[in-house]
Design brief:
The protein is α/β, with parallel strands linked by helices and about 260 residues long. It is built from 11 helices and 7 strands.
Length: about 260
């Protein structure tokens, strides 16, 4: 999947807030080694480095374009190209931090225990994932992709919701960790722009669908989706768009042997 750093940063303040909310719940005094999994352009990685300025902080991402911007904006930090599913560092972590990345991966039943094994004793896995897959922004996209017109080209991209409910993560993680903090927040995001939710999804949920199309199909599918979004998320009286967005948070700490 292609990533556009500039498109992703259109609503950077809204995307950053959940990361800060997650960070506020990480109770580590002086971690030595921190990895930011799915670091994107490195904004959150830089915040982690500022928060724990004596730690070795590295960002991992699978997108070369995102890492290129990260290296340009934050040259003093360490950047790694790779897949989260294959993450196996030579030096285990005191903190694995992942903001809005793990929902792109399937099989959380295997992924989360595997990540925990990369922690040092007393280490923390801190995760934030969008949990908005039943929202109109996503359901209209999936319904359109599975319509007769687009099914052959896009139907294979529709996948079951990758994020489970909180109970599921509790049952998975509680036998493996010493402390577990789980919560969900719904952010009522006030977005500006002619079709703000379209611009939001163009850098995330919509991206794989556009990447799979060629020629006029790209603009045609985007226009059809844009019309559906304007129906689902009409402008308020002041011209803004209110976009509710649910996110799931996990802070899991393993035992300190």
């Amino acid at each position: 999947m292609s990533w556009n750093p500039d498109q992703y940063h259109l609503y950077s303040d809204h995307r950053l807030r959940p990361a800060l909310d997650l960070l506020s719940q990480v109770n580590l005094m002086s971690p030595m080694t921190i990895y930011d999994l799915g670091c994107g352009t490195g904004n959150v990685t830089a915040i982690l480095s500022q928060h724990w300025n004596k730690a070795i902080v590295a960002g991992l991402d699978s997108s070369e374009s995102m890492l290129e911007k990260a290296k340009k904006d934050h040259p003093a930090l360490e950047w790694m190209h790779g897949e989260i599913s294959e993450f196996s560092p030579s030096s285990k972590a005191n903190l694995l931090f992942s903001n809005a990345a793990l929902h792109w991966l399937d099989d959380h039943e295997s992924l989360f225990p595997k990540l925990l094994k990369n922690l040092r004793p007393g280490g923390v896995l801190a995760v934030q994932m969008p949990n908005n897959f039943s929202a109109p922004s996503h359901q209209t996209l999936y319904d359109l992709a599975q319509s007769d017109k687009w099914l052959d080209k896009l139907g294979h991209l529709v996948r079951p919701a990758p994020v489970h409910n909180i109970d599921w993560y509790y049952d998975l993680l509680s036998p493996l960790v010493e402390k577990l903090n789980l919560w969900e927040s719904r952010y009522f995001q006030v977005l500006e722009g002619k079709n703000a939710v379209l611009e939001w999804t163009k850098s995330t949920a919509l991206r794989p669908f556009l990447d799979a199309l060629e020629g006029d199909d790209v603009s045609e599918f985007e226009e059809e989706y844009a019309d559906l979004l304007l129906e689902a998320y009409p402008h308020r009286e002041d011209g803004a768009t209110l976009y509710p967005f649910s996110r799931l948070f996990i802070v899991a700490q393993i035992a300190d042997d």
